[in-house]
Amino acid sequence: MTYKISKSDQEWREQLSSQEYAVLRQAGTERAWTGELLDEKRAGVYRCRACSAELFRSDTKFDSHCGWPSFYSPLAGDTVELIEDRSLGMARTEVRCAACGSHLGHVFDDAPQTPTGDRFCMNSVSLTFEES
Ligand SMILES: [Zn+2]
């Protein structure tokens, strides 16, 4: 996969904080209930913290009680990339930013209360919020 935005490992390390780097570039996960965007309820847009691509809108954010910001749909189908993830002995679907390949979180089909049934479970540290 070739991304529109491509940087060297060194460039990402210089741009991102160590926590951002660990999640976005090494597929880490922030601790549940600690993310700054968990309780964000204002109207606006969520962007990739690594490359600023628009990824989600506030109208698809819902309270999933899982400890991470959750959305039932990305802004558009091609704003995120879905990748099969069999790490940690689990079959999961990883969600990456389609513009720069940075790790955002995982998607699960366990949200029957939403229009899509999907729960895009995102790390706050992977996103920035812009009120609109
Ligand atoms: Zn990105």
From TrEMBL:
The keyword Secreted belongs to this UniProt entry's keyword annotation: no
E.C. designation(s): 1.8.4.12
Enzyme class (EC, first level): oxidoreductase
Record's catalysed reaction(s): L-methionyl-[protein] + [thioredoxin]-disulfide + H2O = L-methionyl-(R)-S-oxide-[protein] + [thioredoxin]-dithiol
SUPFAM superfamilies: Mss4-like
Keyword set, alphabetical order: Oxidoreductase
Pfam families per record: SelR (PF01641)
Residue ranges of domain MsrB in the record: 9-132
Protein name: peptide-methionine (R)-S-oxide reductase
Organism ancestry: Bacteria, Bacillati, Actinomycetota, Actinomycetes, Micrococcales
Primary gene name: msrB
